[in-house]
Design brief:
This protein is of the alpha/beta class. It folds into 2 domains: about 50 residues, Spermidine Synthase, Chain: A, domain 2 (Roll); about 220 residues, Rossmann fold (3-Layer(aba) Sandwich), CATH 3.40.50. The protein is globular and about 50 Å long. Bound molecules: S-adenosylmethionine.
């Protein structure tokens, strides 16, 4: 890919393209086609099956917003699960919460973990933290085998294709509810409202059928399709909009703030309509 332009086709008619300085690694793993490249604009970037996963320059937005909203909403998160997330970015953010005694990461593809450690060390650096257990396995099966185990679960998976297809089903969300403790909270990345409106409608409907508190929030992620990224939160008790002021302890971030914790749930009208609000 060196010196060329790498294009991610986000729909049949639209995509983004970026200049690549050099290819770092490409491999067809057991589950997906893995590419790691040094891009001129975004630094090192991980692609899976031709889709942007994370980049050195804008990764903090997604990883902070997946982690800190549920972790500050729960009053005392101790046991946390990340499904997917093999680049380590969500785990890095989870480690900023001293209440977390153990974080388990379950990613189906060990190659993602291996090459993220090699080429994205500032993202993957906490995967070796003693509070972290890394499991290479199917997140769907891990959830099916878990019960009353986790305070917070974060689903940081690829798109609902290939190995991740089961991670956007109502059965999976029901399994998450079972795997959570009685006051548990989960968040799932839920793609974008411009090209995946039907997916968002379905995910919100499924989660609302299972969790008494269901909310959607957004963040700006320039390298993801449309740049407007959605997250679905399901909670058995705690409402992210009712977090007490004194709950927010100081943490180092570059996107998340305690003000944005609530403002992120203010949705544009066309997204509110999708979320059925
Ligand atoms: N932030 C990215 C996004 O929103 O598209 C996701 C990044 S992370 C690298 C996605 C991870 O999901 C990949 O490492 C992939 O191996 C993992 N994954 C896909 N299906 C999975 C499954 N069934 N169980 C566990 N991990 C899975």
């Amino acid at each position: 890919m060196a010196g060329l332009w790498y294009t991610e086709k986000q729909t049949e008619n639209f995509g983004i393209t970026m200049k690549v300085n050099r290819t770092l690694h490409t491999e067809q793993t057991e589950f997906q086609y893995l590419e790691m490249a040094e891009t001129a604009e975004w630094g090192n970037m991980l692609f899976l099956d031709g889709m942007v996963m994370t980049s050195q320059r804008d990764e903090f937005v997604y990883h902070e917003m997946v982690a800190h909203i549920p972790l500050f909403t729960h009053p005392n998160p101790e046991n946390v699960l990340v499904v997917g997330g093999g680049d380590g970015g969500v785990i890095r953010e989870v480690m900023k919460h001293p209440s977390v005694k153990k974080a388990t990461l379950v990613d189906i593809d060990g190659k993602v973990i291996e090459y993220s450690k090699k080429f994205l060390p500032e993202i993957a650096g906490e995967l070796d933290n003693p509070r972290v257990e890394v499991i290479v396995g199917d997140g769907f099966m891990h959830i099916a085998e878990s019960e009353n185990a986790y305070d917070v679960i974060m689903v940081d998976s690829t798109e609902p294709v290939g190995p991740a297809v089961n991670l956007f089903t109502k059965g999976f969300y029901a399994g998450i509810s079972k795997a959570l403790k009685e006051e548990g909270i989960f968040v799932a990345q839920s793609d974008n409202p411009w090209f995946k409106a039907d997916l968002i409608r379905q995910v919100i409907k499924d989660v609302k059928d299972i969790f008494p508190v269901t909310r959607m929030y957004t963040a700006n992620i320039p390298t993801y399709p449309s740049g407007l990224w959605c997250f679905t939160l399901g909670s058995k008790k705690y409402d992210p909009l009712e977090v007490a002021e004194d709950r927010f302890h100081e943490i180092e971030t570059k996107y998340y703030t305690k003000e944005l914790h609530k403002a992120a749930f203010v949705l544009p009208k066309f997204v509110k309509d999708l979320a059925g609000e």
